[in-house]
Amino acid sequence: MLGFPHDTHTHTVYSDGIGSIADNIASAEEKGLKLLGITDHSHYVVGKTFNRYVREIRRWGNESEITVLAGIEGNITPNGIDVPDFVAKKLDYVIVSVHEWVDTPEEYLELVKLALIDENVDVIGHFGANFPYVGFPSVEELNEVLELAEANGKAFEISSRYRVPELDFIRECIKRGIKLTFASDAHFPEGVGNVGWSEKVFKKAGGKREDLLFEEFL
Ligand SMILES: [Zn+2]
Ligand SMILES: [Zn+2]
């Protein structure tokens, strides 16, 4: 049983997931979550389906006893974030992640820094998922990222799917008052709420309720 039962990163048929919004909510209820976020990929939902996407999350959310938030997972590209203002305004929160191939950790961090100064961004998704492939940045480089996040009030998710960020990075977030969330990144309903790793590392790092971005719903 989770002490902070929430999952802020899940996908549905609105992008590359296989369950409906209702399916994800049903699974979250079954697992005893208090908060569920629906965060489909921006390049699927920004466009004609966007209004329907938000409407459907609101409709099913209103029928549920748990808190259901409408979010999105945007892409961080060399040109910035692909989440327009009008989209961010209609949503409860915006996650953005690096999904494109980069060659060095420095290239990856430059992309993340673009997100950290973008006012539409709330949470950085699966930070460091690329490091095993491109190499790990130095402590100094990571400190620059932490400083920007702290200065701009950005949060990081603790991703049970990718098992990132690293424990030391999470400890540093907590020390600096940078908020955290738990994320399954589930693409199928049964995976919703699979955030055991997130909570384990959060607690190991000394995390308390007040270190969570959405503590008021938990
Ligand atoms: Zn992602
Ligand atoms: Zn995702």
TrEMBL record:
InterPro entries noted in UniProt: PHP_dom, PHP_phosphatase, Pol/His_phosphatase_N, Pol/histidinol_Pase-like
Coiled coil (residue ranges): none
Residues in Polymerase/histidinol phosphatase N-terminal domain copies: 6-78
A Gene Ontology cellular-component term: cytosol
Source species of the chain: Thermococcus peptonophilus
This protein's name: Polymerase/histidinol phosphatase N-terminal domain-containing protein
A Pfam family assignment: PHP
GO molecular function terms attached to this record: phosphoric ester hydrolase activity; zinc ion binding
